[in-house]
TrEMBL record:
<keyword id="KW-0812">Transmembrane</keyword>
<dbReference type="Pfam" id="PF23452">
    <property type="entry name" value="HPAT"/>
</dbReference>
<protein>
    <recommendedName>
        <fullName>Hydroxyproline O-arabinosyltransferase-like domain-containing protein</fullName>
    </recommendedName>
</protein>
<keyword id="KW-0808">Transferase</keyword>
<keyword id="KW-0328">Glycosyltransferase</keyword>
<keyword id="KW-0472">Membrane</keyword>
<keyword id="KW-1133">Transmembrane helix</keyword>
<dbReference type="InterPro" id="IPR056508">
    <property type="entry name" value="HPAT-like"/>
</dbReference>
<dbReference type="InterPro" id="IPR044845">
    <property type="entry name" value="HPAT/SRGT1-like"/>
</dbReference>
<feature type="transmembrane region" description="Helical">
    <location>
        <begin position="12"/>
        <end position="34"/>
    </location>
</feature>
<feature type="domain" description="Hydroxyproline O-arabinosyltransferase-like">
    <location>
        <begin position="58"/>
        <end position="351"/>
    </location>
</feature>
Length: 361
């Protein structure tokens, strides 16, 4: 009887252990499936990306001029920042327009702004974007920035979904541009990234924006970014090869010189008219003109019967209530126009800006 009782207890214990083991195995399998599915959107997956907290907050910073062309884009950008800042999934902190005109303008009371000096006269050689790295150096040195991370953005960015902190600790996140090709330009890049530093593949196919990066790391990279930008501009071969994306290459090289690799996030941004759908991407970048005929067919390179191109408004803001695209135009373009219209309808004294334009980018 005693033996049978003991055998019964052993069997009961074994059954409990088997049930517990099955539960743990099932839990682990489900966890792996969840992580795998989440990785499709937020790859490489890290659950901290889905969480908000003060340690993950990033400061939204963009550089700008006092030209009307820059101002109206900044106003739209700031409008949508305020709309999405406190939505679930957002890790946005405060906002700063880094104004590198060296003087205040009429948007100081509307948009949080930090005024810095432009490069000495003539040093940018008409390439106004060269002021961007110098502006960041001054801002990082002089401003009181509470957040641990920084999002480097641009005036022609619109937040279409709440943006979490995509950086992983000390590893920043960037967007891979199809036209930034370090390997194809290895001969030129070796002037600034010598062989002893490593392979050219260490240079990421990115620009400085959009990038989410630790503030302390940006403080190290920014001065190098300035120096590389100026050296590239001074080199005729490099200047000719890289053209208007020169400072983007300069940031990529500067980061590599500091041993920094970015997480490449294609979902960071979309660029109409080439990207057709917004989906779960975070930033809409309207740098390209959108030209279509009335059948909804793209006529890129030829002015369309319907068009939206930011460069059509160099001297002042676009009018309110822009006409929507004809049927058949991609959802991304329709979304862009609707978001511009919403902003212009709600921003006070929208039509008040006018003046000269110094930059067309």
């Amino acid at each position: 009887m005693i033996v049978r009782k003991n055998m019964g207890r052993v069997k009961t214990l074994l059954m409990l252990l088997m049930v517990l083991g099955f539960f743990l195995a099932t839990y682990n399998l489900v966890s792996l499936i969840i992580e795998h599915k989440a990785g499709g959107l937020l790859e490489p997956f890290d659950k901290k990306v889905l969480e908000t907290g003060s340690n993950l907050k990033y400061h939204v910073a963009l550089t700008a001029t006092d030209a009307a062309y820059s101002q109206w884009q900044c106003r739209i950008m700031y409008y949508w920042y305020k709309k999405v800042k406190d939505m679930p999934g957002s890790d946005m902190g405060k906002f700063t327009r880094i104004l590198h005109s060296g003087r205040a303008d009429q948007l100081m009371d509307e948009i949080p702004t930090f005024v810095v000096d432009p490069l000495p006269e003539g040093l940018d050689r008409g390439y106004i974007v060269l002021n961007r790295p110098w502006a960041f150096v001054q801002w990082l040195e002089k401003a009181d920035i509470e957040e641990e991370y920084i999002l480097m953005a641009e005036p022609d960015h619109i937040f279409v979904n709440p943006l979490p902190n995509l950086a992983h600790g000390s590893q920043p996140a960037g967007y891979p541009f199809f036209y930034i090709k370090p390997v194809e330009n290895a001969k030129i890049l070796r002037k600034f990234y010598p062989e002893d530093k490593g392979p050219v593949t260490d240079v990421d196919p990115i620009g400085n924006s959009p990038v989410i990066i630790q503030k302390s790391l940006m403080e190290e990279i920014a001065p190098t970014w300035v120096n590389i930008s100026l050296r590239m501009k001074d080199d005729p071969e490099t200047d000719k090869a890289f053209g208007w994306v020169l400072e983007m290459y300069a940031y990529a090289v500067a980061s590599a010189l500091h041993g920094v690799k970015h997480i490449l996030r294609k979902d960071f941004m979309l660029q109409p008219p080439w990207d057709l759908h917004v989906g779960k991407k975070f930033i809409l970048h309207y740098t390209y003109g959108c030209d279509y005929n009335l059948k909804g067919q793209l006529t890129y390179g030829k002015i369309g019967e319907w068009r939206f191109d930011k460069r059509s408004y160099l001297m002042g803001p676009p009018p309110k209530n822009l006409s929507l695209p004809p049927p058949g135009v991609p959802e991304s373009v329709v979304r862009l126009v609707k978001m511009v219209n919403e902003a212009t309808a709600n921003i006070p004294e929208w039509d008040s800006l006018n003046g000269r334009s110094r930059s067309r980018r």
